[in-house]
């Protein structure tokens, strides 16, 4: 779908794929680097072109001084060839500025690492407006469990990074502003049950989408 005219205080599902369905995360460090970028570039401050030297060397998530954010990250999933983000815009033009920084910075890193040129992503990112609370809850589960929706093979599951652990366990890092979701459930277990109960529906919809994609009209 086309990008929305983003509004402050509204939530959006933001996503993109690698060009020609190629992987955008080849190893664990790549997905860590992207996750670092999600944190590092989430500021109204101008960062210039310092991304190459400012992010960590892969052992820890980069930290920064307190600052005014462009967006709140509600949930995320980084799969080998695409990503999903659930974002709340909290600054004027926040999502557009944020995604330009993240996409541009990560592409520079990836191209430098793998000695390639050109676009990494399939055009500009796509987005949909979250227009109801029912959709919000479903979408949070869909993104948190997206690697299971796509049945990522065990051999490459280590590349995947998801906010699922932030919602259901004891995470190593905290990236998300979870209260908009978590306050609607009595505890982590209730949310975990909700998400897992929704997973079969997600899988059915994924199958239907693939079937419709290849249908032809006589």
What report would you give on this structure?
The protein is globular and about 45 Å long. The mean pLDDT is 89. It has one domain: 2-Layer Sandwich (Alpha-Beta Plaits), CATH 3.30.70. It has a five-stranded antiparallel β-sheet. It is built from eight helices and five strands, in the order βααββαβααβααα. It has 218 residues and is of the alpha+beta class. The chain is 40% helix and 14% strand. 32% of the residues are buried.
Keywords, please?
five-stranded antiparallel beta sheet, 218 residues, 40% helix, globular, Alpha-Beta Plaits, alpha+beta
Task: Using the alpha-carbon principal axes, give the shape.
Answer: globular
Main sheet specs: 5 strands, antiparallel
Q: Any guess at the CATH architecture?
A: 2-Layer Sandwich
Structural class estimated from helices and strands:
alpha+beta
Major β-sheet strand ordering: 4-1-3-2-5
Fraction of residues in β-strands: 5-15%
Kindly report the CATH topology. Alpha-Beta Plaits
CATH class: Alpha Beta
């Amino acid at each position: 779908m086309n990008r929305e005219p983003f509004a402050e205080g509204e939530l959006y599902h933001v996503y993109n794929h690698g060009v020609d369905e190629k992987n955008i995360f080849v190893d664990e460090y790549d997905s860590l680097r992207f996750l670092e970028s999600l944190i590092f570039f989430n500021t109204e401050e101008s960062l210039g072109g310092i991304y190459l030297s400012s992010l960590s060397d892969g052992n820890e998530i980069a930290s920064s001084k307190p600052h005014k954010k462009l967006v709140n990250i509600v949930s995320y999933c980084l799969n080998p060839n695409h990503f999903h983000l659930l974002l709340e815009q909290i600054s004027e033009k926040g999502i557009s500025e944020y995604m330009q920084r993240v996409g541009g910075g990560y592409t520079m890193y990836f191209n430098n690492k793998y000695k390639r040129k050109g676009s990494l992503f399939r055009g500009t990112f796509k987005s949909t407006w979250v227009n109801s609370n029912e959709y919000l809850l479903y979408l949070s589960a869909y993104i948190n469990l997206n690697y299971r929706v796509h049945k990522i093979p065990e051999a490459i599951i280590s590349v995947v990074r998801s906010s699922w652990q932030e919602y259901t366990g004891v995470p190593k890092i905290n990236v998300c502003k979870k209260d908009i979701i978590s306050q609607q459930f009595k505890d982590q277990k209730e949310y975990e049950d909700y998400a897992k109960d929704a997973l079969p529906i997600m899988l059915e919809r994924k199958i239907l989408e693939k079937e419709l994609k290849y249908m032809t009209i006589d």
